[in-house]
Amino acid sequence: MSPITGPGLGLGTWPARRARISPDAPALLDRYRSLSYAELAQRVAQVAGGLTRLGVRSGDRIAYLGVNAVEVLETCFAAWSLGAIAVPLNHRLAGDEVRYMLEDCGACVLVYSDDAAELVTAAGPLPPSVRHLVAVRPAPSRTGGPGAVEFEAGLAAGPPVPADGETGLDDPAVLLYTSGTTGRPKAAILTHGNLTWNTVNQLAHVDLLSTDRTLCISPLFHCVGLSQVTLPALLKGASVELVERFDPALVLSRIADAGISGFAAVPTMLQMLCEHPGWAGADLSSLRSVVYGGSPVQERVARAWLERGVHLQQGYGMTEASPGVYMATRDGTAAHPPTSIGVPHFFTDVAILRESGPEPVGDEPGELLVRGPHVGPGYWERPQETAASRADGGWFRTGDVVRADPDGWAFAVDRVKDMYISGGENVYPAEVEAVAVGHDAVADCAVVGIADERWGEVGVAYVQPRPGAVVDPDELRVYLAARLARYKVPRYVELVEDLPRNATGKVRRVELRDRAAAR
Fold first, then answer.
1. Cα–Cα distance for residue pair 470/307, rounded to 1 Å
2. pLDDT tens digits, 261-284
3. pLDDT-based confidence at 483, cuts 50/70/90?
4. 354 and 455 share a domain?
């Protein structure tokens, strides 16, 4: 199948907007094809028929490995229609990691796109549970690989199978593996009810219309791409354009060419977009909603977007909460610092864990507790980890330290596990990093704690200079000392070309801690 043509690096063009939910309205688009809602429903029923012929039954796990594509969602929806559980996997992992996840979840079918074919080979021998391989658009030289059936001919070409009608809101829908920044990944279980309530929360917070055209640049193996972008848009009858990999030039082009009204990103993406040579001439007039999360955006980045008339809305969440917990409101962003994560979603309870029990979130930082119908039941076959993640009253322990101003607008202070204690004082790396990136020569910074005989722990700052800039470590420490308490200033400053990040853009602090300890 050859890519459809049109403006924007090979991506297609949408038909005219429709101001209502309609079977003929465009639902999904990738660089190969577009589907209306009626066509998507038909395709899902056909793929469900193909999975049924492979022996898939309710409760089975169906894994997908590959970049964003229409087939990812066809596979997920087909699995759900049969009562099976979708397991989208990170295509940026190593073979050993993929094999571990397939074995951990007990997937019986692995669907993969051609870009992941070599990764599937590297993951071999696959666990015995994987009975069937399904190749999406295999290259002619591969023809699907040994033992694989082709998605179109073997899965989507047969008679359709309707939804079983027996799946309930409490049944598992998807397993999403956590990022693994603090250890080996585990699969968070999200039910159909969790995804539904998260969608309701998102639509209550973001004014999404059926005429909107959303760009999905976040990977669909991550909760943001699936739950914060795609599912809310499809529930409203809007359109979702899937981008295989983040590319600033492509994103800026598609915003203008397709009239994109919104997307979700991590701060690194927002920075790369506004620093791209095409930024100044890009037409951003169609944008109404740009949300981001993962960490606070740098003030200069937020200012660059605001100068173009685009209000950024920061959100906060985690995979286990489907993922939305907090989000800034569009009208409230002007009156609050850009570092605020906003207010709780509508059907979300929040509290702070104290020795006496849960207390309201206030000015004194503490570990955030979350409760609501969007919070998942736990981790796949991990009863001990599930129990450890819960506090009395059914609260989920986030491991994140937050505080809130008198208006209820919250601020993510840091991860509990990222905090270190120097000379008896708590040091939250995020606070130090936020000051460091205010330096004109600093593009990014990550701080970790290491053991010290005198102070217990001291900080090590890994600093990424801005292009063409020179950072003097001693001068930077003087800069920080003028703005922070002395015990918060890192003892060591190390310059790096790039900070190590996982697939969702989060800094891999475990790697930095290991590096610091080794040196």
1. 27
2. 999 998 878 988 999 999 999 999
3. confident
4. no
